[in-house]
């Protein structure tokens, strides 16, 4: 037994020597690696936010830190590996000053934080308040020529908002995403998002609203008598329309029709591809976008096309 005890330290001597050699090599690599210092911009997390308080204005979202460590270690540091953490559990209404120290920065164990900038942060807090405000619907675009936008309705009519006391007191309404009425000839209904213009405010709970926009024929009319123009008559052909003029009625808003110049309105028939003969052809009208054509009398004319040789 005594002999075995004396031999025990020398058992597996080869493995032990190999382990010792590897440890020495690793130490030499680490000891020989250059230590560097680097500046980084890292995210700032606000934790332990007291209930019933709101931030007044924008809080900083990043801070600058200087870190020290092995060059290879710092080169592997990625986004989110280093985070500054500010504890707000002692916050109360008013403008408050908080210190930022290297101890408040989370970093990998082999990275040393040596400096934080800024070293202090001024943050203003207000009491939180809730209020109910009306929802103001909105639309975008222009209806079809001759049509106008009428009443707008929204359901629900109100929504609860939350935010800093001073901002809530100034809030008069919530808004909706605009409902498009572009080219519409009848009322439009859509379900859209409700939001707030003030970024310091938020909805108590996310809401959608159903907005209805009434689209009606314009309340005003403008009557014109126009000659019927013949378009795209083929070469060596003559054409004549009977009757040679038509009555048209334009409809739109008072303002829209006031911008209409009768010289900009044209009644015409298209003869493209037609040869000699008699044809009943529908009359078409080019009119400004401020007005829509609500009536043409007669709606079609008789067109006689003859060859120049006849």
Oligomer: single chain
CATH homologous superfamily title of the largest domain: YbbR-like domain
- CATH-defined architecture of the largest domain: Beta Complex
By DSSP (H or I, 4+ residues per run), the number of helices equals 5
Distance between the termini: 139 Å
Query: How many discrete structural domains?
Result: 3
**Structural class based on helices, strands and sheet pairing:** mainly beta
The CATH class of the largest domain turns out to be Mainly Beta
What are the salient characteristics of this protein?
mainly beta; RNA Polymerase Alpha Subunit, Chain A, domain 2; 3 domains; 5-stranded mixed β-sheet; 5 helices; 24 strands; 14% helix; elongated
What does this structure look like?
The protein has five helices and 24 strands. By secondary structure, it is mainly beta.
Short description:
The protein is mostly beta strands and 310 residues long. The chain has helices at residues 2-7, 13-32, 71-75, 165-170, 254-258, and strands at residues 35-47, 53-55, 62-70, 83-87, 94-99, 105-106, 112-117, 120-136, 139-140, 147-155, 158-164, 174-176, 179-180, 188-195, 202-203, 208-217, 220-231, 237-242, 245-252, 266-270, 277-282, 284-286, 292-297, 300-307. It is elongated, with a radius of gyration of 40 Å.
């Amino acid at each position: 037994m005594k002999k075995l005890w004396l031999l025990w330290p020398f058992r597996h001597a080869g493995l032990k020597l190999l382990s010792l050699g590897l440890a020495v090599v690793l130490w030499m690599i680490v000891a020989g690696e250059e230590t560097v210092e680097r500046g980084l911009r890292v995210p700032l997390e606000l934790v332990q936010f007291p209930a019933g308080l709101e931030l007044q204005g924008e809080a900083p979202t990043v801070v600058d830190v200087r870190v020290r460590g092995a060059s290879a270690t710092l080169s592997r540091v990625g986004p989110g590996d280093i985070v500054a953490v500010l504890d707000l559990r002692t916050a109360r209404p008013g403008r408050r000053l908080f210190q930022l120290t290297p101890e408040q920065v989370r970093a990998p164990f082999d990275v040393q934080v040596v400096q934080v900038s800024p070293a202090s942060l001024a943050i203003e807090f207000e009491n939180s308040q809730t209020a109910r405000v009306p929802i103001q619907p909105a639309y975008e675009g222009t209806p079809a020529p001759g049509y106008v936008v009428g009443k707008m309705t929204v359901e629900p009519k109100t929504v609860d908002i939350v935010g800093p006391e001073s901002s809530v007191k100034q809030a008069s309404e919530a808004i909706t995403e605009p409902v498009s009425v572009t080219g519409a000839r009848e009322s439009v209904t859509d379900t859209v998002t409700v939001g707030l213009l003030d970024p310091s405010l938020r909805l108590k709970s996310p809401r959608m609203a159903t907005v209805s926009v009434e689209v009606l024929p314009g309340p005003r009319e403008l009557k014109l008598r126009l000659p019927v123009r013949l378009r795209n008559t083929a070469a060596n052909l003559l054409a004549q329309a009977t009757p040679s003029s038509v009555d048209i009625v334009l409809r739109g808003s008072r303002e829209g029709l006031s911008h209409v110049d009768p010289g900009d309105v044209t009644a015409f028939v298209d003869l493209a591809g037609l040869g000699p003969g008699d044809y009943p052809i529908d009359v078409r009208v080019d009119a400004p976008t401020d007005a829509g054509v609500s009536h043409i009398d007669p709606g079609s004319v008789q067109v006689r096309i003859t060859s120049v040789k006849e």
